[in-house]
Amino acid sequence: MDNKHIAIGLLGLGTVGTGIMHIITEHQHKLCKKTGLNEISVKKALVRDLEKANGHGFQSVDYTTDGYEVVTDEDIHVVIEVMGGITLAKELIEKALDQGKHVVTANKDLMALHGEDLLQRAKRNQVELMYEASVAGGIPILRALNDGLSSDQITKIVGIVNGTTNYMLTKMSKEDLSYDEALKEAQEKGFAESDPTSDVGGLDAARKMVILARLGFSTSVELDDVYVRGMTEVTSDDIDYGKKLGYTLKLIGLASKEENGAEVSVEPVFVPDEHPLATVNDEFNAVYVYGDAVGETMFYGPGAGSLPTATAVVSDVVSVIRHLRLGVSANALEDSSTTSLEISDERDVSAKFFVRLHAKDVAGAFESITAVFSKNNVSFEKLIQSPFEQGALAEVVIVTHETTRGDFDQTLEDLKLLDVVTSIKSRYRVEGGTADVLEEQNLALV
Ligand SMILES: NC(=O)c1ccc[n+]([C@@H]2O[C@H](COP(=O)([O-])OP(=O)(O)OC[C@H]3O[C@@H](n4cnc5c(N)ncnc54)[C@H](OP(=O)(O)O)[C@@H]3O)[C@@H](O)[C@H]2O)c1
């Protein structure tokens, strides 16, 4: 880098890559003002199809199909990785770091799996590795945890960090769409991929929670440490019962630090309608952070998309350039070693739970069900019982008081063995208290 110009290498020119080209071109003046440079340009970009790349019309970029040409170019000081995937992206980032280049990535899959190693490698090479865009796209949440809240002790991070599932749950809740209809609409609008498995199965959110928990608690967290349950079993009936109880169903990523360890989970959770996360709709993301000193803060915005994600990437580039010009490395200042915080056994996690079951509408059925709850030390906070199928069956919905996941799961296992219980239809975790809306709606409250 000379005093006036910095050359960037770009790996990948897809959705985010083209957004980056637009931001760098269109915000050039602002970017130069923020960094004190005269020019910030992409010198070389890795693409798969040279003809298609030339068709974009971006000026003065050399396109190559060989990523190593980008990461070994001596004029390039900062490499941006937005090609996605694991193996090649990792190899190219490692090569770039070893060549003394700073790296900015949006790759959550890679950072969740190999983030700790790559960060250590960056530190050894005295360069920076930044990854703001890997969590919640356009929301500067990593910067908030790293800088804005750096003087506080973070105790809990609760997030809606997957736009696809939030879009689907919003449509199911507000427009009464079924799961399949909501997924189809999300795919048509480009909010869900043709293979939505990692979104609806919770894996995408789990990867982001690994990154958030590591950074928030300065601890080592692996993907296997996360309790993951996706939204594939969610039905409109569950959402409707939630509404009656004053809850909204959200796919929630939760990382919380207790005295004896930490919990990291992703699962559909009923949150009270008045909770700020309940109002986060459509494809938007939000992350709620609890700090000992600051209390509660919420960060809200677009979790994906070409320009929002590109904004996060280019803002990381601005930070890198500033550090370069000041001759400091944020990495070098920080002790990047992580404390080891034990991950709690998922059975010991304490929460309230919701269960919906079908039972025979016969004398003594309710007593048998309550006996199973008592045996497992699980007590009810709310219960709704309504007859259906000409009175042959009853639908029972129970919200428990705080209990452990282990005791709750054991209760469900024991209920399945009862003659009077014909099926357990659904179960969810519940955050916060139940609103007193049942009486107002004249529901059968036992
Ligand atoms: N899209 C978002 O809103 C968003 C938000 C946050 C984070 N991210 C992350 O950002 C990264 C990029 O996402 P994206 O949506 O921009 O993906 P994308 O549209 O698929 O773009 C990736 C680009 O990289 C190219 N590429 C991949 N492997 C290549 C190779 N071996 N050689 C040459 N070119 C190669 C692809 O070319 P082909 O198309 O020819 O395969 C494609 O043009 C991913 O890690 C993603 O998780 C994306």
Give short descriptive properties of this protein.
446 residues, alpha/beta, Rossmann fold, Dihydrodipicolinate Reductase, domain 2, Alpha-Beta Plaits, 3 domains, 37% helix, 27% strand, elongated, disordered C terminus, binds NADP nicotinamide-adenine-dinucleotide phosphate, HDH
Termini separation? 72 Å
The first-level CATH class of the largest domain is given as Alpha Beta
Ligand kinds: NADP nicotinamide-adenine-dinucleotide phosphate
- Structural shape: elongated
Oligomeric state of the chains in view: single chain
What percent of residues adopt helix (DSSP H or I)? Answer: 25-40%
Mean pLDDT: 92
What is the total number of structural domains?
A: 3
- Secondary-structure-based class equals alpha/beta
What is the assigned CATH homologous superfamily of the largest domain? NAD(P)-binding Rossmann-like Domain
| CATH topology annotation of the largest domain | Rossmann fold
Mind telling me which CATH architecture of the largest domain this is? 3-Layer(aba) Sandwich
Strand content: 25-35%
Protein name: Homoserine dehydrogenase
Keywords: Amino-acid biosynthesis, Membrane, Methionine biosynthesis, NADP, Oxidoreductase, Threonine biosynthesis, Transmembrane, Transmembrane helix
Organism: Geomicrobium sediminis
Catalytic activity: L-homoserine + NADP(+) = L-aspartate 4-semialdehyde + NADPH + H(+)
